[in-house]
Amino acid sequence: MATAANGASTSPAPSSKLSDDQHALRHGGPGLTGWHEWLVARRGSSCSHAWPGQVLHIALPEGWDNIAGLPPEDENQAIKVLFQLLDEFAAEREASTDVQILG
After folding, report:
1. CA 16 → CA 32, 49, 53, 57, distances in Å?
2. How is residue 28 annotated by DSSP?
3. Can you tell me the distance from the alpha carbon of 31 to that of 35, in angstroms, rounded to the nearest whole number?
4. Is the pTM of this model over 0.90?
5. Is 34 left (phi over 0), alpha (psi -120 to 50) or beta?
6. Rounded CA gap, 83 and 73, in Å?
């Protein structure tokens, strides 16, 4: 654990690496492999943000000032869009897998 300039202890930021998808690792599924790339393609633009920032770009196209201080309506919008995007991602991957099986 690190210490912030104000003396408060801080936890390391959660890794955005997809290898941290423990459920997929345990069960041999694809997990979120390709999620970040899919978000970049869906958005049509790339930036240095990991997938949470990519979701915010899609959910809040006008931008945001402070991710830790999002107004409740922006936070609710981001959560709603996150689950919509996850559903679309899973559906597209499932359809792609079905085509590979049939082909």
Report:
1. 11, 10, 10, 16
2. T
3. 9
4. no
5. left
6. 16
